[in-house]
Specification:
alpha+beta; 4-stranded mixed sheet; 3-stranded antiparallel sheet; iron ion binding; oxidoreductase
Length: 503
């Protein structure tokens, strides 16, 4: 009897393994291989060995592979027969982001991964739900009053917090700051003010811990881990058992959600007592426009915090490091800044074309979000001939596209803002944008980033405010490493010394 039970148990263990073994082989027969550059793959485990071997540099590894591929597309075989298509082909990017937009939603898997934090927010939903939120959000983002509010929030944070902290550091002459951390705190204060009308005061001389910021960071880190895992069953089991990282995620999301709901209820109560709210943050705008469902509003606002939390700070961190490495570019930017008023108005900021080009060039080499993905809603054939099976995920590799010789020429590795510029007949620089599907740093097509203009406004105001007064000098011997969670970071941060500018 014992032997019978053991045999039955082994049978039940072997059945799923056998299923996945044959599923893996069958999947490899169904999907077309684009070329010899695909990493070696085995039945059942796929390319697990090379994936693990390169786990510390997954972005760079996949970038090398996709740029070596003749079609700029390759298939990454993951354990248990799962396949992900990775592309740096602009024609494919246009196909999935615009031409066949309806065939490439975010997909169920991505939605499940982010649902705990993002719920039904605009970045975590498809179809009619996404369309409705996009229309509501697009209307709010296109108002002059929001732009004025963003300018005010950025200027207050810049002049009352960031610049005084840098001035204090410069006065000592020896203080080393983690500039990445400083910029993350700056961006977090900004986006919370813009989204909720709430100031977490995260950028202060004491560099305080903020419960909301810490919880948000914990939640994003764990959800990113979900997206990267080779065996999703593990995190799902941990969630079921409420242990480990999933237990920490539940606690962190609880803090974020409790805060979001608290602020939403307070704003609604204020609205009941007045005919309209005096504040012009995004939460107030959504409530004023008649969208009063707590969860709906909280989901949207949390999504915008996620989008604005680390993207601008990541871009600025690499920007300041590149300027130190390329003093010629820094001099050009300083010349442009000094031709503007000390507190440039919106139109002056728009005219900072060399600074704008330098930021674009920095994000080409070090994009804030290195990869983004969709999922095929039906069988399809991509423009490069790759067959997409229904349910197959596809990732467009933004980091790799910025390093493509075909797109940027033989000097692609150089930091050269002039590639974004041309001169008019009077000798003035004119910004020359690139095709959005060759440079999808802000996505493209129907889901193009609503906050693009807001991001450039913030980054150019910070660049002007800091560079006019200070030199940001990375500590000698530092060679930053590009790593990615939800957004790109420098491994270990960017230690710098701040010097007063005397010229």
């Amino acid at each position: 009897m014992i032997d019978l039970h053991l045999s039955t148990s082994f049978l039940f263990l072997l059945l799923p393994l056998t299923f996945f073994f044959f599923k893996s082989i069958f999947s490899s027969l169904l999907i077309k291989y684009p070329g010899k550059y695909t990493p070696i793959s085995y039945p059942l485990i796929g390319s697990l060995f090379p994936i693990l071997q390169n786990s510390h540099r997954l972005i760079q590894w996949t970038s090398d592979i996709v740029n070596d591929s003749p079609t700029k597309t390759f298939l990454l075989h993951r354990p248990l027969g799962r396949v992900r298509v990775i592309t740096a082909n602009p024609a494919v990017v246009q196909h999935i982001l615009k031409t066949s937009f309806h065939l490439y939603p975010k997909g169920k898997a991505a939605r499940n991964n982010g649902f705990d934090l993002l719920g039904d927010g605009i970045f975590n939903t498809d179809g009619d739900g996404w369309k409705f939120q996009r229309q509501v959000s697009s209307h709010e983002f296109n108002t002059k009053s929001l732009r004025k509010f963003v300018e005010h929030v950025v200027d207050v944070e810049l002049n009352d917090r960031l610049l005084p902290i840098l001035a204090t550091s410069a006065a000592t002459g020896t203080t080393v700051l983690n500039f990445e951390d400083i910029l993350q705190r700056f961006a977090f204060d900004n986006i919370c003010n813009i989204a909720f009308g709430y100031d977490p005061a995260y950028l202060m001389p004491s560099m305080p811990e903020a419960i909301f910021a810490t919880a948000f960071d914990e939640a994003v880190t764990i959800i990113t881990g979900r997206l990267r895992t080779n065996l999703p069953l593990i995190w799902k089991l941990k969630r079921l058992l409420n242990i480990g990282s999933e237990k920490r995620l539940r606690i962190a999301v609880g803090v974020v959600r409790e805060f979001a709901n608290k602020v939403t209820k307070e704003k609604k109560l204020e609205l009941q007592q007045k005919s309209s709210l005096d504040s012009v943050d995004l939460l107030s705008r959504f409530l004023n426009s008649g969208h009063s469902d707590d969860n709906f509003v909280a989901d949207i606002v949390i999504s915008f915090i996620l989008a604005g939390r680390d993207t601008t700070s990541a871009a600025l961190t690499w920007f300041f490091w590149l300027l130190h490495k390329h003093p010629r570019v820094e001099i050009e930017i300083l010349t442009e800044i000094k031709n503007k008023s000390e507190y440039p108005i919106y139109n002056e900021v728009k005219e900072m074309v060399y600074t704008h080009a330098s930021l674009c060039e920095s994000m080409r080499l070090y994009p804030p979000v290195p990869m983004d993905g969709k999922q095929a809603a039906d069988d399809d054939i991509l423009p490069d001939g790759t067959f997409m099976k229904k349910g197959c995920p596809i990732t467009y590799h933004i980091y790799a596209m910025g390093r493509s010789e075909e797109l940027w020429g033989s000097d692609w590795a150089e930091f050269r803002p002039e590639r974004w510029l041309e001169k008019d007949i009077s000798g003035r620089w004119i910004f020359k944008p690139r095709d959005a599907y060759e440079y999808p740093v802000f996505q493209a097509g129907p889901r193009v980033c609503l906050g693009k203009e807001m991001a450039f406004l913030q980054m150019k105001r910070v660049a002007a405010g800091v560079l006019r007064r200070f030199k940001v000098v990375p500590v000698a011997g530092i060679e930053p490493v590009y790593v990615s969670y939800f957004t790109a970071k420098m491994k270990g941060g960017l230690p710098v010394k701040i010097e007063e500018r005397n010229e």
